Fold:
Amino acid sequence: MAEDAPEKPDTKHGAYAPGTENVPDTEDEADRRRRRAQFLRELNEAKELRDRVQPRRARAARMRQQMRMRTFRW
Structure:
């Protein structure tokens, strides 16, 4: 039965493998960071576009955010 088990379990994408070191592969980590940066750029672009298309809603959202920040306590 022990011969059927793989020598090193799959540890990619957050899979838990007891007894293995949690050292991320640098290429996978760099690729993940690149994809995340691209996603965040596109998200900001979409938010800016939405604000230009719906100025009244964007202004109301800014006002709500300002009120939130004014009432925020440190």
Q: What stands out?
A: The chain has two helices and no strands.
